[in-house]
Amino acid sequence: QDVPVKNSKEKPISPDLFGIFFEDINYAADGGLYAEMVQNRSFEYNPSDRKGWHSLTAWKYLAEDFAYGTLTVETSEPLNENNPHYTVLNIEDEGQGKGGLGLANSGFDGMVLKEGENYNFSVWSRLFSESAVPLRVELRDKEGKVYGHTTWTAESTDWKKYEARIAVTQSTDSAYLAVVAKGKGKIALDMVSLFPENTFKGRANGLRADLARVIADMRPAFVRFPGGCLVHGDGLENMYRWKNTIGPVEERVPQKNIWGYHQTAGLGYFEYFQFCEDIGAKPLPVLAAAVSCQNSGGTWRIGSIGQKAMPLEDMQDYIRDVLDLIEYANGPVTSTWGAKRAEAGHPQPFNLEYIGIGNEDKITPGFEERFKMIHDAIREKHPEIIVVGTSGPSHSGEDYEKGWEFAKRENVALVDEHYYEKPEWFWNNRERYDKYDRTVPADIYLGEFAAHDTDRKNTLRSALAEAAYMTHLERNGDIVRFSSYAPLFGRVGHTQWNPNLIYFTGDKVLRTVNYYVQQLFSVNRGDIYDPGLVSPSGRGKDKKAFVVSGVKDSETGDIIIKIVNGEEGELGADINLSGLDISKAEAECILLTGNPVAENTFEAPETVVPETRSLRVNETFTYPAPAHSLSVIRIKL
Ligand code: AHR
């Protein structure tokens, strides 16, 4: 790294040290960041997604004013083969007051509508009867109050897309979408969709603006996506295949999400790359190492652990897919996959630098063989791409050693480690990377970590343990290239995993205390670690839960000091600016403190939030760090 390190004590810090890990777990994508408001829009839910789910999950039959007829789900001559199910309304009588026959979608826990905003409705329909069928689309609440509407007449006997903008006049958080046929006839409907017009950056097929903003506010250096376990799936059938997630949304291949729900692939690789670009983060896609979730058993058993793996005869096609992803992201518009990126509206490359291969895979002979094939192919065809491998499912012990041995043998550039541990573990292990062998060429990506407090609550105590650990990531920023908290998002009422960094409902976003720690480190990163800038003072020297870190940002010239006090009482940190010109220095201190077991909640979202105050600095001075606090001091020289 080309960082102006001045003396032997200073160490360069990776510019990409703090980023995020986005996985579609806890409804993070469908029902979350992906702004689609209709749930099961293409009638593809089925019992393999979740027991009891079917084509009409989240839908209801509507027969108004004693209208009658049938609502069926059919599959012959569908919109396309990836989207086999659609619904058919056969309206025999539209009812006494022409109320009509139709269907209603409840969205994800009710639809949130905002007064004065527009919503983009679209649907594919196909007429089976001779006469055209007029339809009315309404956004209603349970009492039948209408918040916005549009009408159209289905006339085409071929599948045709209809689009309209619906203006909403009042706010509500519990609307549903009603699509009602107002005349006799028979029509098919598919891909019934509703998006807020106001998506993040106004993108079509875009992202929920509030959730995207909360990520953007962290200014992450990179985004790892789309998983986690989601990547390898729990069988080859739902291994994440990026090619299934690009192109027109109605042609994408939906599948069972390993976390027990349905994945539309509406938020796919194009949208991920675009989002990274929109927030100035580097994309870090992770692809399966052609094996599925550890020990999940199944058709193709390899090694002794019953891991499902891709048959070797399919590996060349799989490797082709991996190489094609690089072409999709970076290739010229004249290349096959670069042309597809251009078709989607992005002729410029996405500047992909990194690819992850594998996630927490058991290091078995079957894994090793497949990983090596993929890794060798990338290195041969794209030596410019940096591959991130995995240390396996454990972060210590024999399996972990095996993972590292393999990575070293194969010259893997970066190794992904994961750990979820108690807060004390983070305090006790904050020298982990100090001890790493610097002669090994492989660097570290701490791809998933979180301190799990009692009942898996997002307490200040857990956040401070993470902060303490992150000071040690800064100190080891020469070999730890990336790090990301996990998981990122949890939709209230739909979590498979706690704690998460950010919780949300249909219209509310909760930043946990842990979020503020990640954000404070990310927006206050430096590129040089300097151990001479700060040290514990007096009693602080002997305290277990007290750490400090001093970094420089060579672009702005700012000095940034972080102090984490996990002890019961105030402790001092000696700050040493001698040798620096502080005649014009201005400093501010951002403080995150409170009761160690306090959490932010939807009822009290500001229980523990950062507070900024100005600070007087001298060449040397002692900063009093309050009990249970993170202090981030930025000194502008
Ligand atoms: O972050 C949640 C899960 O934890 C990830 O999917 C997986 O990689 C890990 O086990």
From TrEMBL:
SMART domains: Alpha-L-AF_C (SM00813)
SUPFAM superfamilies: (Trans)glycosidases (SSF51445), Galactose-binding domain-like (SSF49785), Glycosyl hydrolase domain (SSF51011)
GO molecular function terms noted in the UniProt entry: alpha-L-arabinofuranosidase activity
Catalytic activity: Hydrolysis of terminal non-reducing alpha-L-arabinofuranoside residues in alpha-L-arabinosides
UniProt EC number: 3.2.1.55
A biological-process GO annotation: L-arabinose metabolic process
Family: Belongs to the glycosyl hydrolase 51 family.
Name the record gives this protein: non-reducing end alpha-L-arabinofuranosidase
Originating organism: Sinomicrobium pectinilyticum
